[in-house]
Sequence to fold (222 residues):
Amino acid sequence: MNNSVTNTARLLWAGLRALLVLTVICGVLYPLAVTGIAQGLFSDQANGSEIEADGKVVGSSLIGQAYNLPLKKGQETPEPDLKWFQGRPQNGLGANSVNTQYKLILSGATNRSGDNADLIKWVKDAKAAVVKDNSVPGYTVRPADVPAEAVTSSGSGLDPDISPDYADIQVHRVAAENQLPVAQVQKLVDEHTDGRTLGFIGEPRVNVLELNIALKALVAKS
Fold:
């Protein structure tokens, strides 16, 4: 009996020591080491890839933002503010119905098949809107000019980037809305076009938030 109690106590003490050691290693030392390495080598990414403008954080380079006009009375969907470059559609986003005390950014796809009637209508309506909004005197956008990402949302609905093609067809409209020379706005797009990662991964892209921050600075100088 005494041996049984002694063995049980020894096993419990060994288990407790293992718990304490693993708690210190896995719960304290390892997180501190990973956090230190992340902050030392990848500080920007570890802190959310924040973008600053005018001395304050205005967003993340990883999360897209909408550039819309305030809702008018009776409107359910806001109209785009055409003085800014527009990102991808956000049809996948829902509304925060769980806790309405907070305004949350919700991520999600449309989850509709390619032959879904609603999706087809969204794409057709979005293409017509892109053609209409970006056609200005002296420059006409044809339906064939509209790239796919201009009329479809990403899997997350939060894609921060657009293709150079989509940015290019917005140049004349943005220039007209802000009373800027087209060449200056086009130069801005070219300067904010990033190539493929490592030269072969992904596609060339333009971060819409960074581009609009640069546009705001350009307008302020004019």
